[in-house]
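Apologies for my clumsy wording, but could you write out the amino acids of a protein and the tokens describing how it folds?
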Amino acid sequence: MASTTRRRALGTLAAALAVGVTTPQLAQAAESASKRGPAPLRRAHAHNDYEHPRPLFDALDQRFNSVEADIYLVNGDLLVAHDPIDLDPSRTLDSLYLAPLAARVKANHGSVYRGWRTPLQLLVDIKTDGAATYQELDRQLRRYGRLFTTYDRGRVRDGAVTVVVSGDRAARPPMEAQARRSAFYDGRLTDLGSTAPASLIPLISDNWANNFTWLGSGPIPAAERDKLRGIVGAAHARGQRVRFWATPDVAGPERDAVWTELIAADVDHLNTDDLAGLRAFLEAHDKGRGR
């Protein structure tokens, strides 16, 4: 995909030169295209990313554009783990995610994926008291200045990384009260159509199994297909993205069928623990569409 993008950009430059058009913008576009790395897989979401051998980096190697980390507030710091028994003081949100992302963005001159300005989503799932944990998260995010997408008195400015807060619902009130923040809120289907704007809730997530009976065997029931597309349409009309967790994640035709239906409905994030499996699926899907 990246090579196709470079060929198109260079072809545009050649055409412009052929008719005598030479501008600094065209030269810069050609230089940018020649330096651009592989495109991120914008739908790919690494669920429980921290459980992989190389948290964050395994997902980035597979070109995922969304990763998820569960956090606990312990002795004033944010530790990353799925269950309390797995807590390790050396595995902090800062050491596993924030500092490495800052270093990568600096090395790539402002982006997580070289030459691609689409922000990477860091979904932070709060497992301890939401208000207190968010307060510490907010403090840590502010250390990194302009690395993160920010909300400032009604305006959103994209950064290289967009932090979305999920998990304990008590995080929402302190977030809503802030005139300026470096994180956003992960809504549920009950938030769809509410008065809360996309500048607070850019993402709507929910449990697939709580909303649909179809798990990939046979065709999806027409009523469930209509429901899925209605959810996505309503969210997109408000500038919100959609993600479902608890979708089938065992390799096989059922998982592929669900993923295919999600893409057809234009669901924004496909949830998986199988990084290589989802990458292969998305690449095959794009190749089949001539991309």
Q: What stands out?
A: The domain at 37-288 is CATH 3.20.20.190 (TIM Barrel). The longest strand covers residues 64-74.
